[in-house]
Specification:
4 helices; globular
Length: 288
């Protein structure tokens, strides 16, 4: 048996298992994601995050959902990586660049007493073009989909990963049933994250999220950003607002000056530990 050191962290309740792979922890460690994420038989998490070296940024993040599928970007996970590398002494920078599958992100660490109190992530520009989201629709701002619950109207946005934002009264929605159905709707060629958003006012939105590959989670950073963008383009919100999620509040701003979306929120350590695994669990099949 081999031993793997890990840290459990969360950003607004969106929890992942973090592993330092800067000294090489094996190319196929991601194969453990599903087992370790199991909340009954494993550590329990929304997924697994590997912190790696990068040739184009300070660090690289690979993140895997609870079902083992790889995600392109997670704002909550990115904030936790910023806190991890700073408080573990891996960097002295308060502005850190992070390579992800959706590009290099910039993390602005807000320090208090030598600790990272919160992090702002430059999430880049949102994508509103149907082909690049991708979604099969002529008008991503208003996508009407047939479901078992009737016709659902959503706004499709990409924040490096696909999102479908449904504006609704949260008390009237079966998030688990409809979220699961919309995630795998044929309109999304690569599945999608689904956000259910209730507008309290132009500066505060309530949100629940069904994440692609993980189910309902306590928070989703890219989902919060996509929800704010969708609210702005449909005239429901200002360009800066607080998103109230099950795990806490996130502040999102879509700046006109550079068209970038900025996500600010907390990052916290939960606990650290060691887990055992067998070599065969992280052995890729040989290619003949």
């Amino acid at each position: 048996m081999k031993k793997l050191e890990f840290s459990k962290m969360h950003g607004a309740g969106n929890d992942y298992i973090y592993v330092d792979c800067t000294n090489d922890c094996g190319e196929a460690l991601w194969l453990l994601a599903e087992r370790l994420s199991d909340r009954h038989k494993g550590i329990g998490a929304d997924g697994l995050v590997l912190i790696m070296n990068s040739e184009i940024a300070d660090f690289k993040m690979r993140m895997f959902n609870a079902d083992g599928s790889e995600g392109k970007m997670c704002g909550n996970a990115a904030r936790c990586v910023g806190k991890y590398v700073y408080e573990k002494g891996m960097t002295k920078k308060s502005v850190v660049t992070l390579e992800t599958l959706s590009g290099v992100k910039v993390l602005d660490l807000h320090l208090d007493g030598g600790k990272v109190a919160s992090v702002t992530v430059d999430m880049g520009c949102p994508t509103l073009e149907a082909a690049r989201i991708p979604v099969r629709a002529q008008n991503p701002e208003k996508v009407e989909l047939s479901t078992s619950q009737g016709v659902v109207t959503l706004t499709a946005v990409s924040m490096g990963n696909p999102h479908g934002v449904v504006f609704c009264n949260l008390d009237d929605v079966d998030v688990h049933r409809l979220g699961k159905e919309l995630e795998c709707h044929p309109a999304f060629s690569d599945r999608a994250n689904i956000e259910f958003v209730e507008v309290e006012n132009s500066q505060r939105l309530r949100m629940r999220v069904w994440e692609r590959g993980s189910g309902e989670t306590m928070a989703c950073g890219t989902g919060a950003c996509a929800s704010l963008v969708a609210a702005v383009i449909t005239g429901k919100s200002d360009r800066k607002a607080v998103l109230q999620l099950l795990g806490g509040d996130l502040t999102v701003e879509w700046r006109e000056a550079d068209n970038h979306v900025y996500l600010t929120g907390p990052a916290e350590f939960c606990f650290e530990g060691v887990v055992e695994y067998e070599e065969k669990e992280v052995t890729l099949p040989s290619r003949q």
